[in-house]
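User: Some background: our group keeps a shared notebook of sequences we're curious about, and every so often someone picks one and asks for a predicted structure to add to the entry. Today it's my turn. The entry only has the sequence so far, pasted here. Could you supply the structure so I can complete it?
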Amino acid sequence: MSTGNARAGVDRRTLMRGALAAAATIPAGGALVGCAAGGDDSGGTTQKGKVSASNPFGMADKSTVDAVIFNGGYGIDYVEFAAKLVEKNHPGTTVKVSPSTQISQELQPRFVGGNPPDLVDNSGANQIGFNTIRDQLETLDDVINANNLEGVKIADTLFPGVTKPGTFDGKFVALNYAMTVYAVWYSASLFEENGWTPPKTWAEALDLGAKAKAKGKYLFLWGKEAATYYQTLCIDSAIKQGGDEVRLALDNIKPNCWSHPAVQAVFKSLGEVIKRGYMKPGGSGTQFTAAQAQWSNNQDALLYPSGGWIENEMKDQTKAGFKMTGVPTLTVDSSSAMPYEAIHSTAGEPFIVPSKGKNVAGGKELLRVMLSKEAATNFAKTKLASTIVKDTVPPDGFGSTALQSQIKMLADAGTNIFTWNFVSLYGTNKDMLVVWNSFLKGDTDVAGLTKGLQEITDKVYNDSSVKKVTVT
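Assistant: Of course. Here's the predicted structure to add to the notebook entry:
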């Protein structure tokens, strides 16, 4: 469970840059300061050093850096790789990289207590809602305006638009490290064996579900912690069907946003999948990677919705010759506002530097090193996914069919790329999991699903203490 995707190929990179160019451009930021960056008069920054070309944030000599990293689909070893480079370039420095799957539960007390880590990967189902901590975070313009280890300005090495997901009220406070493509995944080899074609509409999915059932298989399955993967699937499908008005209604958590006709059409289609018995039972009591293994290893189900991190997450539990492949999210029908080829893709895996960390400069330095070509290439090679750093993936996608399919989806989408962020922004995933597990289990119908989700978003919308972000 994480975020990620990939890019490869010289010619396809050109196409993908054009596809992503529709997103916001990278903020200009300011010049590097002449002393240690970060902190304020009451902050926790206690370690300061001399600013230089190789130490742009003034990290103190022989200092310690505390990083807490979400231990999901990408693990933590890619940050450990960068940590070793920091320790090599700054002799005597110690970088502690700690894993966590409960970011909110473990770190919110540290934010409240004024002793947060120096760098955090605020990801996963239990991430901290950005609206609750964004005023406690460093702006990161100085990081992308610094030079990488190769001596090139970092901003010039990134895909366009990658700072937008981490920019709130004009402040760039979260650097999303991985490029993510959200898709419907399947085994190309299994489909080839049976003469099946991936569905493009929900009606085609229902037809495929009947064929799966005839073979003793299911169309979909789920695990309890990843029940909201189906929320992502449904939102993406509804946006493709109904267009920008659906995206804006949901991202701005408007009253009755879940009752939009396009959203309801998708909910009813998924409800029909469940009603016909095409959803494998028992997901609400199954750990999500165990459920995913039922798809990738046992092949109990044909399709699974996820982000591009899925291949790496399941690399040890995937049947030999599986040929994991992704295709765009379904539309309701052929009259959709956006073409079938449209995809949900964005920079993900948000890294933040708390202003009251003991070593703010050290947190930024670790992030700078992660954005070097050396560290970004290591990530792409070991995780079979791309970071936001360009030109780090070879044309063959390191032999990964999943990576190759992501490249194709991005190229085919052209400028029809969209994203949304309200669940992460307001930290509602935990509550939504309850509603979705009930729906996928068959205990709640479409009306109950709609009512439950609307109550969750209305609670945020009507809470005057929650600062809202207007999405356009």
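Suggested note for the entry: The mean pLDDT is 89. The radius of gyration is 22 Å.
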